[in-house]
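FAQ: What does a multi-protein file look like?

Like this. Sequence, then tokens, then the next protein.
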Amino acid sequence: MKRILKPLALATSLVALLAVDFASDAPLRLQFARDANAIIGAPLTPMSYAGVARRTTRRVVAVEATAATAATATAAAAAAQPKPPPPPQAAGPVPIGTVVQALPPGCVATPIGGVQYYNCAPGVYYRAVFQGNNLVYVSAQP
């Protein structure tokens, strides 16, 4: 029993000595926890100039990195999209059923028989239709 009691008493007293702090205003001049003394202005405290500058720099870098990533992604997406083919020139009569991606310049919307046609030149009419998910124009005779 004495073999166990002596080391146990020694360990308990050592822990108590390490945990106790001497204070002049505490009863028995002993206290078990030190007061938290935050010194504002010390280098690693939250309200110090260095702490504020460090957080501000971290935030600015994070925002700029996010903006740069978004700009790069937008530029890459814009570069990856295929350019639409140029609209055909109205050099003469277009064969009926010809499909074009965009109307030639100078077309005027004209409703004929309840159907919207686009008159692009004398005798050349286009009608808007969907080809899959794409809007295309087909030359037609109203």
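And here is the next protein:
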Amino acid sequence: MRGVPIREKNPGKSGRSNDPPVLILTSLASGPKHGYALLQDIEAFARVRLGPGTLYGAIARLEERGLIEPVGASGRRRPYRLTAAGAEALEATLTELRAIVEEGTARLAGTGTPRVVTAGGLA
């Protein structure tokens, strides 16, 4: 699943990424969590508060795509964990975001030469 985009089109007003799939996969990268624990962790590390509908909708899509999977349920709680495909997709997305951050930083400093992006990558 290399290069599978996991981000949704909903950037935050502050420019910070608040893309639910990226936030969920990032949270699960440190270990399995159930929905409420995901909400708390995401709010702690990203300062983003996801609504339950947003969270569980994104969880369903990530599970359908094989990027996360449920772990044995404990009571009403259903924990999820990152799959190998999910870790790979998160890594690819973080690499892409890192490149954007580096480009933006260079442009702000006046040292960057704008690069043209084509369908296949940088030109």
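Q: Is there any per-entry metadata?
A: Some entries carry free-text notes. For the entry above: The CA atoms of residues 39 and 50 lie 7 Å apart.
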